[in-house]
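BUG: 3D viewer hangs when loading the predicted structure for this chain

Environment: internal workstation, default settings.
Expected: structure renders.
Actual: progress bar stalls at 90%.

Input used:
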Amino acid sequence: MKKSVLVAIVSALAVLAMSLPSLFAFDVPDGITITVPEGEKPLDKFPEVQFNHSSHASIQCSKCHHMFEGCGEIMPCRDCHVSRDSRKDPSSYYAAWHSKTDSSCLGCHRSMKAEGKETGPVTCMKECHPQK
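Structure tokens produced before the viewer hung:
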């Protein structure tokens, strides 16, 4: 009797352990358009950027969403990075995608390229901001 209860408990724990990843999974949109902060005019020179989450599935969410701590809502970059006054300001809209740190698109892509890895766009007009 005790053995069968123990087997049932261990089996239930095993099933629970296998289902944990799906319990904490996020509904991640795949093809998204990165736009300027609300109320800001887009620059005609640099069109909106198309971003594909599935290409980045092997990267932890917190690498880009650096304020995310594993629970709660993941905010888009433009919700915090709103200033367009200074490109050098680390919290600026521009820096969110173009800084030299690995938490920005360009910084991460350049680091990967330097390591000889396949990477995403590292140039402005030809790759990231193609003209329409």
